[in-house]
Design brief:
Keywords: ATP-binding, Membrane, Nucleotide-binding, Transmembrane, Transmembrane helix. InterPro entries: AAA+_ATPase, ABC1_TM_dom, ABC1_TM_sf, ABC_transporter-like_ATP-bd, ABC_transporter-like_CS, P-loop_NTPase, Type_1_exporter. The chain is α/β, with parallel strands linked by helices. It folds into 2 domains: 327 residues, ABC transporter transmembrane region fold, CATH 1.20.1560; 235 residues, Rossmann fold (3-Layer(aba) Sandwich). 62% of the residues lie in helices and 9% in strands. The chain is built from 22 helices and 10 strands. It has a 6-stranded mixed beta sheet, with helices on both faces. The protein has a 4-stranded antiparallel beta sheet with strand order 2-1-4-5, with helices on one face. A hairpin with a 2-residue loop joins strand 9 and strand 10. The C terminus is likely disordered. The structure holds adenosine-5'-triphosphate (ATP). Adenosine-5'-triphosphate binds next to helix 14. The site of adenosine-5'-triphosphate (ATP) has 13 residues, from helix 14.
């Protein structure tokens, strides 16, 4: 895990190296901090001779008044303090910057993976949880650097320096201090597994909480319409209670870990104070040296504390990072082939060759489906709900790959074609058009980000959307709310048809594009859809038979099987499933093929 995290350092090496150098200097200054006090006690209050370099300092010459010497030492204290704080601040700033760069790298990688992961993964994942992992858990990389690596390294430098000085001052006291280390280590080992487990549980629950919240907010209309507020609130409150409990368990483990550390430190300090006092009384050490020793005790416990606290942060951070790495390590089952075929031209011939597919490995959603569709022809897929029509469309875009058989475009198995290339040559208009919180112009341009304003407006005209867009005061620059809530269903669908016009792909899938609209709006849209289908191989999925009047052939699905395939005329004459469907439908417009 640590090695893997170091991999994200690549873009921030300079800042980390600079931060570490400053850290080293700051540690050296920390070791020097208590010495002015020692000189004050021994050479100003007492009668010991000051060291040579200090004796030569202005104001410290023999015969000078003692207050002048005190001023020199006071200036030293200020200078050491300012330099120490400045170096510490700069080193932390660089490290935080490096940490942020690492977090950025991890977040971008997680999002890139999420884009590449197959829909099967997204079907079984909760959006809120993925959001929590990508946006928040990734931040643990920063904690690992600033909360573990930096304090530990800084602690290590300070410990080494302090131990060297302490051993030179008094071996007995230094050994007593060192004796606390195994106790601290034992405590770390006792608590690390417990903290990691509780931390993972807490963050998993937080992810579920975020997922619930996201789901509730994105279905706010349904919640208000069906007065589900109370029920939803209750289940959210229950989740939040679990979160409180898990957080308490996690914090309890962390705090009792800290409590044991505090007790060990108090006992260690008491022992050092006792032995130090005896050393002064027996004349083995000067009062100034004991003061330095006592000051070092605080300094030394600080890095030891950083080591032990660092272990807690480390386990919490690695638990969070493992949640992000779970995304990154998820196998990309629908991926770009190793050597993709990129045909120069698309004719648009589609073939399903004995295709079988199931979502979860048990009952197939498609069973042995085979059909051919000539370039430029329109195929309408009809059938009862859940019979497999949308699944057929999903396979065409390689949202999923078939388990058996193959889907081919112009004779090439889709799995051998470049994935990006394939998706840029197949347009889809969904039943529920998704509009982003952006301007109308930007929403249409998603069909082709390089399109000029003229192209965008032309596409809107062809989709019969130009008229209503021009009526907005800001026209094409009108901002749409989240999911385009300020447009009617028909207007939203027109924008999504305009996107398809702009994308200008040779293959089009229309997945029940009008089934959510009233018959009058549907009639208005049919003209735009027919213009879109012209000259392109089209698969149109329809519940209302009025939308398939332009179809060259019709495929009828029943429980995942393609039970009938042919022209409208043939299927009606056959008096089979299609005939039954057509005759039970109260169709405002007769089907004419
Ligand atoms: N993401 C999914 N995960 C698991 N099962 C699914 C998923 N999507 C569809 N199914 C199942 O696959 C079968 C075919 O569904 P599909 O959406 O293709 O039907 P459909 O004919 O398009 O239905 P409708 O007309 O209602 O849209 C159904 O049994 C459905 O429950």
């Amino acid at each position: 895990m640590v090695k893997r995290c170091f991999g994200y350092l690549s873009g921030a090496r300079l800042h980390v190296a600079g931060g570490l150098v400053l850290l080293l200097f700051a540690a050296l200054l920390e070791i020097a901090l208590p010495w002015p006090i020692a000189y004050l006690v021994d050479s100003v209050f007492g009668d010991e001779a000051p060291p040579d370099w200090l004796a030569k300092a202005p104001g410290f010459r023999p015969g000078d008044p003692e207050t002048q010497a005190a001023v020199t030492l006071a200036v030293m204290i200020v200078l050491l303090g300012v330099m120490h704080k400045t170096l510490t601040m700069l080193s932390q700033l660089w490290m935080i910057h490096a940490g942020n760069k690492m977090v950025r790298g991890l977040r971008v990688q997680a999002l890139e993976t999420l884009y590449r992961l197959p829909l099967a993964f997204h079907d079984r994942s909760k959006v809120g949880d993925l959001l929590h992992r990508t946006a928040y858990d990734s931040y643990a990389l920063q904690s690992l650097l600033s909360g573990v690596l930096v304090p530990m390294l800084s602690g290590l430098c300070i410990s080494i320096g302090v131990f060297v000085v302490m051993f030179r001052l008094d071996i007995t006291l230094a050994l007593i201090t060192t004796a606390t280390a195994p106790l601290l280590w034992f405590n770390i080992k006792t608590y690390e597994g417990r903290i990691a487990k509780r931390s993972k549980k807490f963050h998993d629950n937080e992810g579920t909480l975020a997922a619930n919240l996201q789901e509730s907010l994105s279905s706010i209309r349904v919640i208000q319409a069906f007065t589900l507020e109370q029920g939803n609130n209750r289940s959210f409150a229950e989740r939040a209670d679990t979160s409180v409990r898990e957080n308490l368990r996690k914090s309890g483990a962390e705090l009792s870990f800290g409590w044991v550390i505090g007790v060990i430190m108090a006992i260690g300090t008491a022992a050092v104070v006792w032995v130090g006092t005896l050393a002064v009384l027996s004349g083995r050490l000067s009062a100034g040296e004991v003061l330095v020793f006592l000051a070092y005790l605080g300094t030394l416990y600080q890095p030891l504390n950083a080591f032990s606290q660092g272990a807690g942060v480390y386990h919490s951070a690695t638990a969070q990072l493992s949640r992000v790495f779970e995304i990154i390590d998820e196998p990309v089952t629908v991926d770009e082939p190793a050597d993709p075929i990129i045909p120069e031209k698309v004719m648009g011939r589609l073939e399903f060759d004995h295709v079988t597919f199931s979502y979860n490995g048990d009952r197939p959603a498609l069973h042995d489906v085979s059909f051919d569709l000539e370039p430029g022809k329109v195929l309408a897929l009809v059938g009862r709900t859940g019979s497999g029509k949308s699944t057929t469309a999903s396979l065409l875009l390689r949202f999923y790959d078939p388990e058996k058989g193959s889907v081919r475009l112009d004779g090439h198995d889709l799995r051998s074609l470049g994935l990006g290339w394939l998706r840029s040559n197949v347009s889809i208009v969904f039943q529920e058009p998704f509009l982003f919180s952006a301007s109308i112009r930007e929403n249409i341009a998603m069909g082709n980000p390089d399109a000029s304003n003229e192209d965008i407006e032309l596409a809107a005209k062809r989709a019969q959307a130009d008229e209503f867009i021009s009526q907005f005061p800001e026209g094409y620059d009108t901002q749409l709310g989240e999911r385009g809530v300020n447009l009617s269903g028909g207007q939203r669908q027109r924008l999504s048809i305009a996107r398809a016009f702009l994308k200008d792909a040779p293959v089009i899938i229309l997945d029940e594009p009008t089934s959510a609209l009233d018959p009058a709006t549907e009639r208005d849209l049919l003209g735009a859809m027919e213009a879109l289908m012209k000259g392109r191989t089209t698969i149109i999925i329809a519940h209302r038979l009025s939308t398939i009047r332009r179809a060259d052939c019709i495929g009828v699905f029943e429980r995942g099987k393609l039970v009938e395939f042919g022209t409208h005329h043939d299927l009606m004459a056959k008096r089979g499933v299609f005939h039954d469907l057509a005759s039970t439908q109260d169709d405002p417009e007769p089907v004419s093929v």
